[in-house]
Design brief:
Blueprint lengths: L1 E10 L4 H11 L4 E8 L5 E10 L1 H12 L4 E7 L4 E12 L5 H11 L2 E5 L3 E8 L1 H11 L4 E6 L3 E4 L11
Antiparallel strand pairs: 1-3, 1-4, 2-3, 5-7, 5-8, 5-9, 6-7
């Protein structure tokens, strides 16, 4: 099993995300992470999908997604030549007894404290998925009240990359 980050440029209109996600679901492919947003061109959206599977299945996923009418381009992102980021919001039970400890952890990871009350603290952290995982691991002794984590969003490093257009 290998982890693959797919970048899909699609026509920006309603129903496209549903069509892409349902293609994965109908074929029994499990999506680890999915994000979507508009690009610099308002007619185009970028869908970033993270999947785990063997190379043959991943090749099939790419071919089937490329066949969708709305797909402009689909390509796999090489992690060593790409920037991958996630956003985490986490609310920790933090009172006067442990607030200093939690604040020190936030400083080490460069997390921002964005809300503070007598009994809790909300932190925001942006970074590579491994950094987010490490931060959550260090916070595991504390009571996590709520948590929200985006999926991976990614771009290739450097200038415009030449990928074949589907259409």
């Amino acid at each position: 099993m290998q982890k693959e980050v797919l970048s899909i440029l699609v026509d920006n209109h309603s129903g496209v995300l549903t069509r892409v996600a349902s293609l994965f679901g109908r074929r029994g492919f499990n999506i680890d992470s999915l994000t979507v947003s508009t690009t610099d061109d308002p007619k185009t959206s970028r869908i970033t999908i993270v999947v785990h599977d063997d190379a043959k299945v991943l090749e099939q996923i790419i071919k089937q997604t490329a066949r969708l009418e709305e797909t402009q381009q689909i390509f796999s992102l090489d992690a060593s030549h790409s920037l991958l980021r996630e956003l985490l919001l986490v609310k920790i039970e933090a009172d006067e007894k442990n607030r200093t400890e939690v604040r020190e952890i936030a400083e080490i990871y460069k997390a921002k404290i964005i809300d503070l009350s007598r009994e809790s603290m909300v932190m925001e952290l942006t970074g590579e998925p491994d950094k987010i995982d490490g931060f959550l691991d260090v916070l595991s002794p504390y009571k996590i009240l709520e948590m929200c984590r985006t999926g991976v969003t990614a771009l290739e490093r450097g200038g415009i990359q030449k990928h074949p257009r589907v259409k």
